[in-house]
Amino acid sequence: MAMVQPKSVKYRLWLTHLGLLAAIAVILFPLLMVVSISFREGNFATGSLFPDSPTLEHWSLALGIPYTQADGQVVNPPFPVLTWLWNSVKIAVISSALILLLSTTSAYAFARLHFTGKGTILKGMLIFQMFPPVLSLVAIYALFDQLGKHIGWLGVNSHGAVIVASLGGMALHIWTIKGYFESIDRSLEEAAIVDGATTWQAFFHILLPMSVPILAVVFILAFITTITEYPMASVLLMDVDKLTLSVGAQQYLYDQNYLWGDFAAAAVLSGLPITLVFLYCQKWIVGGLTAGGVKG
Amino acid sequence: MSESLRYPSFRKMLHWSLWLLFNALALYLVVALYAQRQIAFALLGLVVTGIASYVFISRRTYAHRYIYPSLAGMLTFVIFPLLYTVGIGFTNYSGTNLLSFEQAQRYLLGQTYVAGDRYPFSLHDSEDGPRLRIDLGAQGVLVSPPLEGEPVQGEPLGLQPESEVSLGEPLPLRDVIKRRAELERWVLRSPEGELLRLYGLREMAEARPQYRLLGNGDLLDNRSGERLVANHEIGFYVDAEGHKVAPGFTVYTGLSNFARVLADPDIRQNFLQIFAWTVAFAGLTVLFTLVVGLTLASLLQWELVRGKPFYRLMLILPYAVPAFISILVFKGLFNQNFGEINLLLNGLFGIRPDWFSDPTLARCMILIVNTWLGYPYILLLCMGLLQAIPRDLYEASALDGAGPLDNLLRITLPLLIKPLAPLLIASFAFNFNNFVLITLLTRGGPDIIGATTPAGTTDLLVSYTYRIAFQDSGQNFALAAAIATLIFILVGAMAWLNLKLTKVKV
């Protein structure tokens, strides 16, 4: 507690609370609105925050169940949202697992082993990570087009391509894990190596079990990065059934086919799990951010 | 003794056979790519698999085995595409010049024109697929092989006598109509060597190759006797009058794309306008998110404020919602006719701004949305950094009678700016290339009036590049690659500056 307090402190405290609440109101407005819209009738309905006659029409369509309107007309789901969500989750889980596997082993070598070119490689990785993949999409497309001619599951319009392409972005994860490894005392591993263990055994049986928290954080960070990835997936995937959520979701809001209500339900349905995971893990994620992560 | 010997030798054998298998597969891929004249990709495969093969066999590179897989990922999916893109910038690779010279030549030599005799045919279904029965007059009645799969360019199918195959009843004309496009792709060869193609719905006609390759590499048009010369400056075969004959092929054009960006008044004006907006957008985003984030962080920092966990959770919500969803939510909310924001503004002030068709308003909207999306990151960073500032500094300033503004300008900001600077540069670089925001929110629109390339008033350089490559009818990959190369230089400078400021310790 500070020893020196200005006189008007109570008044200013109220003002602070008021300011924070006002900020929260502005921030929550779009999120609450979209929840509200998902329960409104039709795709052009306007109204208050609490819909006058709530309906589950859009939610039913988002879940892939045809909806029968009051006049008996059956509306079919416009897009396979659940398939998109499944595609996204599948791609994100496999990518994140691979990213975690490869960046952990790399981070171990950077943190513990001595080899030529270590500093150069680390810095180089950090610099190249800043080049946005959007700019080399033509090359990435051409690369997978060629690969697909020889290895079918890696071609254009396959999930394999999107998964493999995500393996280019590991530098920040390597830095995060490396920083954690360096904070762990290495005497235990050295003792094991003196007793005849190989470096691999020391890494696998001693260091790895102690690093589970950071591995969880990196997995979640990689999961969120891949599930929200848009540019590469938008070029590499074409069939409606193969799209990921981030590519598919925009199809709701084309001018010619404006499905605002259906979009709202699909957005809440698919956005909520990701948001909850993030909020649940935010304590750990924030620590990793200051290490140099960039979003927003 | 023998047991303990066998075990390691078995492991060693497994090791070696895996290594050999890997090399065999790698070699197959590289040779296959090379055979298809994909030199750049063959080279990439050779480098990536060659290093892998060495790293996993040499004792001296034991440590590199740990890092190589991620390094290979970066090499293949970041560095190679980068170099390849720069390379494309020096060519004329585009929608009209997609093929290589050999492919374009082969395509032209495979072209045919209809001439000579016509023969009636009928379409039959057989056990192996659809076949054509052709009455060739003096040469007899012959039957085609089953027409399934893809025809091979330049390899016509031979015919066999009718007696050798059992055909069903001829299919009715409506089936021929239905399959016409498919049937038109096939070229058949009669016993006398004539090339036959579908001509209308009832007849096959002799098709002659339209071009003949001359000794000096020129093509001779068999029909008109005209000579086509390959022009390697523009990437087209041209006739005597200089008319281009499609398809074009990819050639090296030197700096012409860069010259276009910097010298063509039309493109240069668009480029500079978009560049200015990109810098303004990234700069203002950093400024706004910093102001909002720092203000909220300072408020939350005050120890008398209660309920901090709740405020914190609410304030970082925009960060937790996936960006592609919140951007689309804003796109709907800002909709001019049914968007909630215009309903609200209409109710309060009686105005309905055109958020998507007025350039200035569209830019304002983008900045509002991006501030909403981006401030939580700064907030989180500032909250961490503010905690590190010693409290007694503020106490001393309070004793001297300083107000909150003095505290901010004389204590907080100077202490904050140093650790924050590299993160702000990273944020600037990220927003400089914030493709997803622009693409999902405005798609770059409203468009710049009279632009020759697809350019919008809210386009960033990245989305402009993307549109030139993928959205334009011309698909001008080379021009896009040239602009991308210019952006690479800018991003490289920012990355270098960032690295200098952070003084990364390895």
TrEMBL record, chain A:
An example molecular function term from Gene Ontology annotations: ABC-type maltose transporter activity
GO cellular component: plasma membrane
Signal peptide: none
Stored SUPFAM superfamilies: MetI-like (SSF161098)
Location of the ABC transmembrane type-1 domain: 85-281
Main location: membrane
Subcellular location: Cell inner membrane; Cell membrane
PROSITE patterns: ABC_TM1 (PS50928)
Transmembrane segments: 12-39, 91-113, 125-144, 156-181, 202-227, 263-281
Keywords in alphabetical order: Cell inner membrane, Cell membrane, Membrane, Sugar transport, Transmembrane, Transmembrane helix, Transport
Function: Part of the ABC transporter complex MalEFGK involved in maltose/maltodextrin import. Probably responsible for the translocation of the substrate across the membrane.
Family assignment from sequence similarity: Belongs to the binding-protein-dependent transport system permease family. MalFG subfamily.
Name of the featured protein: Maltose/maltodextrin transport system permease protein MalG
Native organism: Pseudomonas indica
Upper classification of the organism: Bacteria, Pseudomonadati, Pseudomonadota, Gammaproteobacteria, Pseudomonadales
From TrEMBL, chain B:
Family matches, as SUPFAM superfamilies: MalF N-terminal region-like, MetI-like
Compartments, record wording: Cell inner membrane; Cell membrane
Gene Ontology terms describing biological process: maltodextrin transmembrane transport
Stretches that traverse the bilayer: 12-33, 39-57, 66-90, 274-300, 312-334, 365-386, 420-441, 477-499
Main location: membrane
Regions annotated as coiled coil: none
Domain ABC transmembrane type-1: 275-498
Family: Belongs to the binding-protein-dependent transport system permease family. MalFG subfamily.
Protein's name according to its UniProt entry: Maltose/maltodextrin transport system permease protein
Organism: Pseudomonas indica
